[in-house]
Amino acid sequence: MTAGSEPVLELLPMVFADPGEARARAEHVLRTGPSPLHASVAHQVLGIWQRDFGDLRVALRHLRRARDLAARAESADREADVLATLGVALVHAGRTRQGLASFERGVARGGGHTRARVLYRRAYVWWVLGRHREALEDVRRALPVLRQLADDIWTARALTLRATVHLALGAVDRAVADFTAAERLWDTTGQEHDKADAVESRGLAAFRSGDVPAALRLLDEAEERYAKLGTPTYNLSIRRCEVLMAAGLAPEALAEADAAITLLDRIGGQSTRKAELLLAASWAARSAGDAHTAIARAALAVRLFAAQRRTWWETHARLVLIEARTAAGRRSGRMVADAAAVAERLASFGSPAAPEASLLAGRIALALGWTADAERHLAVAARSRHCGPAPARVTGWAAQALRARAAGSRRGVLEACRRGLDVLDDHRMTLGASELRAHASAQGAELAALAQEVSLAQGSPRRLLGWSERWRATVLTAPPTRPPDDPALLSGLTAYREIAARAEAARMDGRPVPALERERRRLEREIRSRTRHMGGAAGDTGDRFDVGRLLDRLGDVRLLELAVVDGRVHVLLCGQGRVRRFAGGSLAEAVAEAEHVQAGLRRLAHPGAEARLPLVEAAGRRLQELLLAGAVPRLGPGPVVIVPPGALHRVPWALLPALRERVLSVSPSASSWLRARETAPPPAGRPVLVRGPGLATGGAEVPGLADRYGTATVLEGDDAQVPRVLAELDGASLAHLAAHGTFRADSPLFSALRMADGPLIVHDFERLARSPYRIILSSCDTARLASVGADELLGLVTALLPLGTAGVVASSAPVNDAAVVPLMLALHKGLGAGLSLAEALRDARAALPGDAVHQATGWAFAAFGAA
Fold it and tell me: Name one Pfam family in it (predicted).
């Protein structure tokens, strides 16, 4: 190098400290008529910027120009450095052979310090190509030189890369050690982009260690850092997709991957990143049940990886492609061989995905009746059940369960299912957010279904009940972690209410709201992200369900749990010290009938639809035949508790003829009912009455209820604002909320009750230390729930039950505001006489006028829990 070149050379580290400023300065250098040496540096800086943040074709033009200028300057080290940068760009463009040839020339041309930096970048390329041993070898050669020269920036980069390779090989402890050492070095530098990358890498390490909340928090922090620098985040999107899928949020992962692909195509970005994003999208689509999208994305990823000579990545894409084709119903001997070949190759790479491929080969072989082949592949997959991260161990136990079933060992199936679900329970409870817990349960669906099938075949209703409870509403077995007093979260919730209220006011005035809606969606994403960062209490899996305890506590109550096995409903009637099973009908038929009933109730909420009443009642009789069948004559005269599967949560159970005049309550699970039954009311509880804005009747029942209770706290008008409402609800004995309710099927934890200052959402309720002992939601759609995960339900009602609420009255459909008033007054009259919610609701229905509107209103409301 010549004297005076140092200021220009400083532009190279600036690319990853302040990318925008580095680009601007490089362009300025080129406008000043620089020497070949300085022009080479400026073109290299612009090439790096375009390679990582812009158009790869433009990057290659700059880097080739930088290479030629370095040769003119007769600087071997300068030429070697540019050749390495060009090699990375060529590989990212899919020109792997040319890229590796550029590195060969760079290693030969450079000496000492420069050669070490070239080796580091070639190690990075080996990692991109999935050739991990070569990557570790080049890092091994580069690190001593970089350390000896006290080159902290490049030493930190090499350590970060080595850690990333260790993660790909499953060596999490080694990776964490290298990440920690690299971060100490980054703290001494101003390399802001590299620092963001280090945070992103720590997020990946946290994920590989099984800490999903920490992974999401760190990835969000990295995104914030990248945003300040104005740089794209394709690699971050790939990593976040992996974490989101592990958390059961496959549709969200698919949307993120597809959005990143669209952006990458628009700017002409790296072909290697596009292939990786396509792999992430195919994996997410397969997990989301969209086999055809998964096939299309995976097939394109396979072609791109093959063209890029990236065998490691291509093999993983082939695994997803075979899985998607299997999900689409394809089975063949060729697919068994392909899956087995993929498993063998993944094992040779040391990939954690190898057991999944062996399990796939075993599943296909079983479907074809090839039991010997299936046993061979499943035995390999089952080895992962004792070690590795939770998903790998669950995969291993699923393989063991299938082996036992093929061998005719029912006991072996149940043991494997129990062990696998125990692993999943431990993992699930590391998650603090109820949303993540619910979605994570999907990973155990196959194990639970296998156990139910075996229990049904054994003819043991008691055991079938136990296994139905094992995977039903597990999110309710322990309270979610309370959100911390995070100022950013609280600020986000306040801003969300304000924006939602402004949008609602604008809609009522007929004004456009696109800007407000965009801001509302942004705030939703922020709130969702913040709550997902909460960790859980590992080891606290909640109360284990005990059939004997349930039967002891039932007394004269009859509990009917509806289990679904292979698409058929089975009624498990619990009471009188025993569990009896009755065969029901098709789940699909029952779901379709329930939708017809809901449509009828919506129509009956408006006067003039009386002609629909006989049709709705007829549908109720058909639902009874499908869902209760032979259990009806055995119900006895006492109270009845219905425990439906998630797919049937919208059935208006009081419409069924056998249940209309009964004391009837609904529960997401038998475990949840037991907990509600054993929940004591607060010793110094008080009634709270809340009247939200915009009701057609103005919440006409509230003044009458205020007179009835005398000492009740009444919140209305400006007093009915969310912070005040939450403060009064905390620890109340009884809460009555008359407000407009909205259910969000797309995001159930943003289902809301409208207060004076905006929506009161589920995330708000989860901040209560103890939710009211009894809650009456005099609102539309407050009992609607979203079925997610294995058989989990998310919504207002299920948010309240784990937080100390023993009983809820809510509606599963839109209701007539005027007809709600007499129902609510009659309900509270019964409570005043000492009745439970279910008893008071039955009497309130009977006291209503006999017209269609009032009958439909009574059927729409249900009592949940046991208070």
Answer: CHAT
Nearest-angstrom CA–CA distance, 185 and 153: 7
Q: What is the pLDDT of residue 3?
A: 40
pLDDT at 638: 92
- Domain shared by 25 and 58, yes or no: yes
Buried b (16+ CB within 10 A) or exposed e, 192-214: bbbbbbbbbbbbbbbbbbbbbbb
**624 and 521 in one domain?**
no
Q: Which domain holds residue 589?
A: 547-650
- Please tell me the distance from the alpha carbon of residue 91 to that of residue 108, in angstroms, as a whole number: 19
Domain contains 591: yes
In sequence order, the 6+-apart residues with CB closer than 8 A to the CB of 459 are none
- The total domain count for the chain is 3
Q: Which region, left, alpha or beta, applies to residue 201 given φ > 0 means left and ψ of -120 to 50 means alpha?
A: alpha
pTM: 0.80
Q: What pLDDT score does 4 carry? A: 45
User: Which of 634, 650, 666 lies at the terminal end of a domain, its last residue?
Assistant: 650
Express each pLDDT in 630-643 by its tens digit.
899 999 899 999 99
Q: What's the token pair of residue 867?
A: 């208070």
Q: Do 514 and 566 share a structural domain?
A: no
pLDDT tens per residue across span 536-574: 665 455 567 889 999 999 999 999 999 999 999 999 999
The reply to whether 623 and 510 lie within a common domain is no
pLDDT (tens digit per residue) in 398-455: 999 999 999 999 999 999 999 998 888 887 777 766 666 766 667 778 888 899 999 9
DSSP string, 306-332: HHTT-HHHHHHHHHHHHHHHHHTT---
CA dihedral 432, 438, 439, 443 (to 10 degrees): 100
Tokens of 684: 């110094």
**Closest by alpha carbon to 500, among 481, 479, 527?**
527
Cα–Cα distance between 750 and 735 in angstroms, integer? 20
Q: Classify residue 611: in a domain, yes or no.
A: yes
Cβ(496)–Cβ(516) under 8 Å? no
**For residue 816, what are the contacts with CB-CB under 8 A and spacing of at least 6?**
605, 606, 607, 853, 856, 857
* In 434-570, alpha helices (H): 434-440, 445-458, 461-470, 487-508, 514-532, 547-554
3-state secondary structure at position 664: strand
pLDDT at 792: 67
Helix (H, G, I), strand (E, B) or coil at 2: coil
**Alpha carbon distance 308, 672 (integer Å):** 53
Residue 800, CB half-sphere, CA atoms under 13 Å: how many? 32
Q: In degrees, to the nearest 5, what angle opens at C-alpha 382 toward C-alphas 376 and 383?
A: 105
CB atoms within 10 A of CB 150: 7
For residue 482 the two structure tokens come to 């309370």
**Domain presence at residue 261:** no
Of 650, 680, 710, which marks where a domain is finished? 650
DSSP strand pairing (734-738 vs 687-691) = parallel
The answer on 209 and 66 residing in a single domain is yes
Which residues of the chain have a pLDDT value below 70? Answer: 1-6, 432-436, 438-441, 473-484, 536-543, 786, 788-793
Q: Residue 854 gets which letter from DSSP?
A: H
Long-range interactions of 319-322: CB distance < 8 A, separation 24+: 319/346, 319/353, 319/356, 319/357, 319/360, 320/279, 320/282, 320/283, 320/286, 320/294, 321/282, 321/294, 321/295, 322/357, 322/360
User: Do 96 and 169 belong to one domain?
Assistant: yes
Looking only at the bridges linking them, the beta strands covering 568-575 and 558-565 are antiparallel
Contact at 8 Å (CB) between 40 and 82? yes
- Please state, in angstroms and rounded to a whole number, the distance separating the CA atoms of residues 63 and 48: 8
Our measurement of the distance from residue 351's CA atom to the centroid of its chain's CA atoms, rounded to an integer in Å, reads 24
pLDDT value of residue 2:
43
- 552 falls within a domain: yes
